[in-house]
Automatic annotation (TrEMBL):
<dbReference type="InterPro" id="IPR022477">
    <property type="entry name" value="Spore_YqfC"/>
</dbReference>
<dbReference type="InterPro" id="IPR022476">
    <property type="entry name" value="Spore_YabP/YqfC"/>
</dbReference>
<dbReference type="Pfam" id="PF07873">
    <property type="entry name" value="YabP"/>
</dbReference>
<protein>
    <submittedName>
        <fullName>Sporulation protein YqfC</fullName>
    </submittedName>
</protein>
């Protein structure tokens, strides 16, 4: 049932040409050079260290690696990180379920 709803939403987004990141509740990451990262549609911080930040997103986690990482701004739907960002990767949920 959940997969059916998800497919229906995806078709509706394509048909109406709506922004998928907003309607489908998927994260949007905007990297500005290697010094700033904006993550929208997050679900909170999981880990926060100067060399690694892990952000919970709708279907998994987003891991950000770097040096001197710090939070510039945090709200319920957006986090802005500053520092020297060297890597960004999506980590699927444990068990690999969708």
């Amino acid at each position: 049932m959940q997969q059916r709803r998800s497919r229906l939403r995806e078709r509706l987004v394509a048909l109406l040409e709506l922004p998928g990141d907003v309607v489908l509740d998927v994260p949007r990451a905007t990297l500005i050079g290697s010094a700033e990262l904006v993550v929208e549609n997050h679900r909170g911080l999981v880990e926060y260290r100067p060399d690694r930040v892990v952000v919970k997103v709708h279907d998994g986690r987003m891991a950000i690696d770097g040096d001197d990482l710090r939070i510039g701004y945090l709200s319920p739907d957006q986090v802005v990180l500053h520092g020297r960002i060297s890597g960004l990767r999506y980590v699927p949920p444990e068990g690999g379920g969708a």
